Structures are given as structure tokens and as C-alpha cells.
Amino acid sequence: MKVVFSRCESYSDVKEALKEVVDRLGGIERFVRKGERVLVKPNLLSPHTPEHAVTTHPDFVRAVCELIEEAGGKVIIGDSPGMQGIGEELFERTGIKDLGYPCVLFDKERTILKNGWLLTSVLEKVDRIINLPKLKTHTLTTLTLGVKNLYGLIPGVTKKKLHTKYPDPFSFSHMLLELYFLVKPDLTLLDGIWGMEGNGPSAGNPVRPGIVAGSPSALALDVEVAKRTGAGGFPLKRIAERKKILPSYTVEGDFRFRLKLPGKRWYHLLPSWAGHILSRLYRVKPGVLPEKCTGCGICMRNCPAGAIEIKDTARINYSRCIGCMSCQELCPFRAIVPVYGLIRR
Fold first, then answer.
1. Could you give the domains of the chain?
2. What is the predicted pLDDT for the residue at 122?
């Protein structure tokens, strides 16, 4: 098992960098055979244009699709965004529609039940999954990379329920690992040419790590990226190491980039069992910036706990708020920010 890094400073050079990574992993033919249907799963969190570094860049997606076609595979691009009620605008705004490949919005497809999980039925129609996360920070999970990107295989309403069931970083990360081992993508390729730091996954600041990375193991890739970006307390990494579920792997290529992480999660430094308990007490919560809030209602419609109402601006009922930060993640005006440092009541 390998995790491979390749420097790439510009999307104009992305295909060469991707080909280098894939060739060092054994070549695209290792992951795609002639005639196979391949689901390409980018991070399409919300309808942001590429320069915001919220979604996997269309040039990155195009280069991967071209490699798949060169191996004789048939491409389907799909995702379920975090925001409910989004249609074809998702593929238009993110630049994915212009690539000319079939695009599927999972929320409009039927669901299937697999080992107790409600997932998109598109999984029944494909032979392979190639996972294309974006290198970003995340106010709940610290980072969002390959394993977290698979959360988009779950249609929208179900995602809301899972946020309610798993409201803290450690229980949510446990859930993500269960999902990962259920659907295990064949290949994960990380778009880290431009990424996001600070209050990601949508309200942070674009940065240029200048890297493309890949591995057959999304978990190994995530853990190695966490080590090399200063996110040693990443809950997913802590859990994988404690449970001894991290595969043995080697690393090829060099990469170091210090990301500005969201907030101060001191409990990440504790043993994972203690961090899990304390994260339920010392939890991030959303705060509204009235001067930026337009009262659009996106946060209210997408709040898993029904803790938000609109009275000119968003008002949060903290007795109901579970601290999942979905509102902050989806606010198009950056009017909701994470607030740290108070013991949860």
C-alpha cells in the first residue's frame, strides 16, 4: 500500500501530476478496466465557483475523467451536496457540467439499504468508485479529506439525521469510518493544488498547498495528510490508530504545509477516549453575525436539530443546537462563525 505525493502549483499542469501519482500506484489500469462504469465522486459541497476552493476543481476532475477514458472506462460524476433543495445549479456553478460527462445528483435518485445504511442507488450501477476530495479544514472534524468525502454518497435528508445522531467530532468520525469500510473506493486522488484553511469547509480562506496525492486507501491518505499539515489531533487519525485499523503503507514524494486549523481543540491532545467525552462538553457552537446575515433561511432549512428560526436575521436556540456546524458550513454569506471556549450547558 502506498500514499503518493506530487508537487503541482497550477491546474494547467494537473494531468501530468495526476498521471505521475497514478503511475506510481500501478497505473490507471490497476483501478479501471475496459468497459467498466466508474463513479467519479468529487467534493461538491455547495454551488461555489472554483476560485473559492470549496469544491474539487473542474480541471482536476476533467484530468481524472480523461485518464479513466484512456483506460476504456465510462464516467459518471455524482454527489449529494450538504445543502438541500439544490438542483442542476450545483454542477453549473462548480464548473462540472461544462466537462461534458453525465452528472447525477444523488438526492434525485432512489436510495438503497446496505448493511443498515441508506445510500444512493447509483452505487448499484457502477463497477468502480474514484474518490476526489478537496484538501480543506472543517470546523467539526478538523479536516475534510477522502473518508469524509464519502459522506456525499448519503442523500440529503439522511445526512441531517446522522448529524443529530453523531453530533461531536469523535462519534461523527467513528460513523465516517464505518461508512468508509462499507463502500471503500477503489482509488482516492486529493486535490490539494488549492485548498482551504481556517473555518472550512466553506467559510475559510483559500490557500495553495500545491500538491496532488493519491492512494488506494483513503484512510491512509487522510492520516498522512493530517501528519503533514499540522493536524496531528485529527479525530479520524486518533481513532484509526487506537483501533489499529490503519493499513501498513509507504510514502513516496515529499509534502509539508502548515494549515491554519479551525479553533482550539485542546481535547484532541488527550487520549481518544477522554477526547470523546470532553468533546461533548467543550463543543464548538455557531454564532450569527447580524451585519452579514440576510435572513435567506438556508441555515434554518438545513439545520438537523431544527434549532434556527429567522426573525430578520437567523436566531439560534442553543438549548436545541447540537453543534454540528452545518449552518456555518452552508451559509453563503459567511454570516455564521464557530465560537469556541465555553463549556456547553
1. 2-252 (3.40.50), 283-339 (3.30.70.20)
2. 98
